[in-house]
Amino acid sequence: MWLFRSASQGSESSRSSALQNAKTAVHGDLEKLRGYHDLAKDALERAYRRDMEGSRAEAMKLYRMGLSIIYEGLLITVQATGLGNAFNNVAAWRADMNKWQKNVLERIRELELASPTASGVRAPQNIVSQQSLPRSPRPQSRPAQPQSRGLGPGGAAAPAAGSTPASKEEERLRDVIEGEVLDRRPSVRWKDIAGLAGAKQALQEMVILPAQRADLFQGLRAPARGLLLYGPPGNGKTLLAKALASEARATFFNISASSLTSKWHGEAEKLVRMLFKLAAEMQPAIIFIDEIDSILSERSAGEHEASRRLKTQFLVEFDGVANGAERIVVIGATNRPQELDDAVRRRLVKRIYIPMPDPDTRRALLKHLLSGQPAKLSRADVERLVAATHNYSGSDLAALCREAAIIPIRELGPAVSSVPADKIRPMDAGDFETALQSIRPSVSPDQLARFAKWTAQYGTTS
């Protein structure tokens, strides 16, 4: 009887766990559909504003971007199981997107058939609100003023950039970006990074060669605008991005989660817009997002509204870069690629694994770390050290060398305050043997197995 009860309880627990996993997956699909709905809405609202201003080329680009987002969103299937009344939202969002799709195609057709100088084109319809608004006449002599690409408080259109409040706000946001995340001249070069020849080659083809030979990299050869560098921590992902900015002579925007978050409602979206605006002004530019999973992780049912809006705004701005002529590349780095939202993963077309250093790379790193340091190590000692540091990351090797370097100082005890620097003995193989006892690899075999699995599923060849 006891055995039967235990088996029954185990079966119930298994069924409950499976049901909970199914509910979580369904809610995840619900949030993805909601995200695409909001993303399409934002793009179409921007397209309508550009259409009203008479900027047909930019309006067409945004209409097509919104259409592409709608196509993606309509491919998402959400099961009704476990959603209850929330499933009504699914039907409403899909109905919205189907209606927007029809009206966008209609408007694109109208704009394509009209000549560039035609003045009799029908006034645009606000596809999102479905209200036809007459176009207010604008004097031909007055140039179109750039406007903030967001919405003001309450959803109203933001004031024109020429007005004083908008100028002050734009200046403040510009100062935030320039003061916190802008690095114009990174000092790292390719030669400063040991190994990673495949990753360097991919970056060369994606950024540097297209800048040098724009005539060759067109059409199907046009370079990707999104790149993901992923792998165990401490192996040079950030250094690679900085070296790329140096080699390409590009402005380098070094972004982290703290750079784009704010306690003020709507501030994060404005910072994202200003980031991409500054990148366009200072192109060629590289936007590097360190720990990208902390900003653009997978959308979920319990996610905060501010986080969801930031992701939506970032995806809209990124689509603008991908569909435009700006020389802007977005590079993300993460130790947790599994946590990225699928919409983000799709936009980061190149996904390059930065692995643990191989023996040749470890040898080069040790040579670099020990250059200029007093050390008595034979070639055989170095080879034994290379073999002993299997599965050590680049940062682990640096920590190992620092620990070995401090041992001769530690041996002096109280006498360290009076001993001349040239009397301290150099490091030797024994110091590294001692250091190996306290500095261990920071990445487990299980973590490496997860990276290998993700690479087989989503990675691209470098």
Automatic annotation (TrEMBL):
Enzyme class: isomerase
SUPFAM superfamilies noted in UniProt: P-loop containing nucleoside triphosphate hydrolases
Keyword RNA-binding: no
Residue ranges of the region described as Disordered: 1-20, 115-178
Record field: compositional bias (Low complexity): 1-17, 129-162
InterPro entries: AAA+_ATPase, AAA_lid_3, ATPase_AAA_core, ATPase_AAA_CS, MT-severing_AAA_ATPase, P-loop_NTPase, Spast_Vps4_C
Protein origin, superkingdom: Eukaryota
Annotated EC: 5.6.1.1
Family per record: Belongs to the AAA ATPase family.
Name of the protein this chain belongs to: microtubule-severing ATPase
Species in which this protein is naturally found: Coccomyxa viridis
Species lineage: Eukaryota, Viridiplantae, Chlorophyta, core chlorophytes, Trebouxiophyceae
Gene: g2126
